[in-house]
Design brief:
The chain is about 45% helix and about 15% strand. It is built from 15 helices and 12 strands. It has a 6-stranded mixed beta sheet, covered by helices on one side. Strands 8-9-7-10-11-12 form a 6-stranded mixed beta sheet, sandwiched between helices. Helix 4 runs antiparallel to helix 5, helix 6 runs antiparallel to helix 7 and helix 6 runs antiparallel to helix 14. The longest helix is centred in the middle third of the chain and has 25 residues. The structure holds guanosine-5'-triphosphate and magnesium ion.
């Protein structure tokens, strides 16, 4: 981190042609710099209209918004300048501001300062970027809840339980004559209560990951079963090439759609077959298909209903882990049906029968992923901290069972507390902060 209190500047909006461009300056020198470049005296807390001037030359007609510390995003004196959205003008103003003593902000530096100036905690800082990168309205809603402190509140509840029992243990150790030793049963019930809360959050972690990263749905089956036709039907788009030649799809293609607030990536794969005559390109495509099917969150396993399940179909179905969600789809229903797998959905892309039923079944599978819905959302980093904290709590619980010295038990409780503190940012290292803010965009 450079000097915390130097003055930084960055474009807040992308450097492309647009209606409006915004430049933000934050730090001790912001007002002084603004006075030098603005055509007239500005008033704090007001919308100021005027010109950005370089010496006597007008650079642009702008709106200037001054925010006095601590009432700003970063907690420092801040100036926001709304310019016309020309990359040339924005760059000229940035150069001018930098020539007067500001430096270009690093990625996420405005938010990092908001955190370091105690305007927000780390869960809220991470929520800012999550909100910007949200793929669906639902993810945006949860990120906004985090920004308002939903995850922090949950973590604080757990920390309070641990802090309280730790304080009692330490008091009895420090003042053995005045304070009685804490009952082991009291320590146990506090630890169990914290443990349950952490386990509840972790139970919803996979649904959080799906909300953040989306869900992968693979359309799998042998050549010519109608995979690309179904892909197009689900997208209501002629995206994939469909022909009666087996092996039409050589490489997988994917598109994303929103299904019940979840970002779903639909993948059309190359038909899988074990045929000596197939060429090198198709072979690679098939290996790819198997990989996609095995890594998908949901598999749509296709077979032709009027032909029935063939040996080749069975060989493909056996490649898929049956523990994972999957839907059997019997295709070309318009040509008749001779054999069905229990629970299979019969579809035809010719008359579109069964397509809505299949969409509903896909949504049912998605909602099973999403069953443990919480107000907040967690990311991988936060989940790792929760897991580490849980390990320490479990170790403390084992020690309580054998009535280990409370001095020793307190060490595990302290560590559990420290790791939870990394979630909110009460305990942080420079490395952790750099890792988090490096993923931000410039100007945030
Ligand atoms: N009658 C009928 N024909 C269909 C239906 N769906 C697909 N077909 C036909 O089946 C043939 C193969 O369809 P595709 O969607 O290309 O099959 P695919 O599984 O993607 O095939 P590959 O890419 O070669 O693996 C085409 O001639 C389609 O017109 C259907 O519901 N009814
Ligand atoms: Mg195809």
């Amino acid at each position: 981190m450079k000097n915390l209190f130097d003055t930084i500047v960055a474009p807040v909006t992308p450097l492309t042609y647009s209606g409006v461009g915004i430049i933000r300056i934050s730090g001790d020198k912001s007002f002084e710099i603004a006075e030098k470049i603005f055509s007239r005296k500005f008033e704090i807390g007001r919308i100021n209209h005027g010109w950005i001037m370089r010496d006597d030359k007008k650079l642009d007609e702008v709106i200037l918004l001054p925010f006095q510390n601590p009432k700003s995003y970063t907690g420092e004196d801040t100036i926001e300048i709304q310019t016309h959205g020309s990359p040339i003008i924005i760059k000229e103003i940035l150069n001018l501001v930098m020539s007067l003593g500001a430096r270009m902000a690093e990625r996420g530096e405005f938010t990092k300062r908001a955190f370091l100036n105690h305007k927000i905690d780390l869960t809220e800082a991470e929520a800012v970027m999550d909100l910007i990168c949200s793929k669906t309205a639902k993810t945006a809603e949860k990120s906004l809840n985090n920004l308002e402190g939903a995850l922090r509140a949950e973590i604080e509840k757990i920390r309070e339980i641990l802090k309280e029992i730790l304080a009692r243990i330490i008091a009895s150790l420090d003042f053995p004559e005045d304070v009685a030793e804490v009952e082991y049963s009291d320590i146990e019930s506090a630890l169990i209560s914290a443990k349950e809360k952490i386990e509840n959050i972790l139970a919803s972690a996979s649904s959080h990951n799906i909300l953040r990263e989306g869900i992968k749905i693979a359309i799998t089956g042998r050549p010519n079963v109608g995979k690309s036709s179904l892909f197009n039907a689900l997208l209501s788009l002629d995206r994939a090439i469909v022909t009666d030649i087996a092996g039409t799809t050589r490489d997988s293609i994917q598109e994303t759609v929103e299904l019940d607030g979840i970002c779903a990536t639909l993948i059309d794969t190359a038909g899988i077959r074990q045929d000596e005559s197939i060429d090198k390109v198709e072979k690679i495509g098939i290996e790819h298909s198997i990989n996609i099917a095995q890594n998908a969150d949901i598999n749509l396993l296709l077979y032709e209903g009027h032909i029935g399940i063939t040996e080749a179909d069975n060989e493909i179905f056996e490649l898929i882990d049956k523990e994972k969600p999957m839907i059997y789809v019997s295709t070309k229903a318009d040509l008749g049906t001779c054999e069905n797998i229990a629970g299979a959905i019969q579809i035809s892309t010719k008359d579109m029968s069964g397509i809505n039923e299949l969409k509903q079944e896909i949504k049912n599978k998605i909602s099973a992923f999403n069953a443990l819905e919480t107000e907040f959302i967690t990311n991988q980093r936060q989940q790792e901290c929760l897991k580490k904290s849980l390990e320490n709590i479990n170790r403390a619980l084992e020690a309580v069972k054998v009535e280990e010295l409370q001095d020793l038990i307190s060490i595990d409780i302290k560590t559990a507390l420290l790791v939870l503190g990394e979630i909110t940012g009460e305990v942080v290292t420079d490395e952790l902060l750099n890792n988090i803010f490096e993923s931000f965009c410039i100007g945030k």
